[in-house]
Amino acid sequence: MTDDLVDTNVWLELLLERERAEEARQFFNQVEADLLAITEFSLYSLGIILTRLHKGEVFHEFLSDTLNDSAVRCIRLNTEELKQILVVQRQFQLDFDDAYQYVAATRNGYTLISFDHDFDRTALGRKTPAQVV
């Protein structure tokens, strides 16, 4: 089993009880937390989205449950890796946030877990939570 980088949209499905929340929930219940990672970029994005929706308490609980009380790793890109985002954006026609996730996953040897079809046109590809469990 490989380590998984979980994209922002998977966390949001669960936190906002969206259409694919149950799929995300099963994934998080069945995959060991020490095999999961979140990028610092995703973490900040979740904070922005949740607080804009007046769900600051949900973000607070997420931080406690995911980062304080579990073994989920938070990773960040260094300056050289940030520069690589621009190359990846052009190469695969990705938005900045997707290119960030792609670089983070490839640099760390992670499988990218996402609902975003844009990753399907990359060399890495992606898996949905349902494909992992």
Describe the structure in brief.
The chain has 133 residues and is an alpha/beta fold. The chain has one domain (4-132): Rossmann fold (3-Layer(aba) Sandwich). The protein has helices spanning 8-15, 21-30, 40-52, 56-68, 79-92, 96-108, 129-132, and strands at residues 4-6, 36-39, 73-75, 111-113.
Polypeptide structure, described:
This protein is an alpha/beta fold. It has a single domain (4-132), classed as 5'-nuclease (Rossmann fold, 3-Layer(aba) Sandwich). Helix content is 56%, strand content 10%. It has seven helices and four strands; from the N terminus they run βααβααβααβα. The protein has helices at residues 8-15, 21-30, 40-52, 56-68, 79-92, 96-108, 129-132, and strands at residues 4-6, 36-39, 73-75, 111-113. It has a four-stranded parallel beta sheet with strand order 3-2-1-4. Helix 1 (8-15) crosses helix 2. The longest helix has 14 residues, at 79-92. It is globular and about 35 Å long. The chain starts with a strand and ends with a helix. The model has no long low-confidence stretch (mean pLDDT 95).
Helix/sheet category: alpha/beta
Major sheet summary line:
4 strands, parallel
Average pLDDT value?
95
Q: Outline, from the CA principal axes?
A: globular
Read across the widest sheet, the strand sequence of neighbours is 3-2-1-4
Helix count equals 7
Q: Which CATH architecture is right?
A: 3-Layer(aba) Sandwich
- How many structural domains does the protein architecture include? 1
- For the record, the CATH class is Alpha Beta
Topology as a string of helices (H) and strands (E): EHHEHHEHHEH
Measure the end-to-end span. Answer: 11 Å
Specify Rg, calculated over alpha carbons. Answer: 14 Å
- Share of residues in strands: 5-15%
Remind me, CATH topology? Rossmann fold
Instruction: Summarize the amount of helix as a percent range.
Output: 55-70%
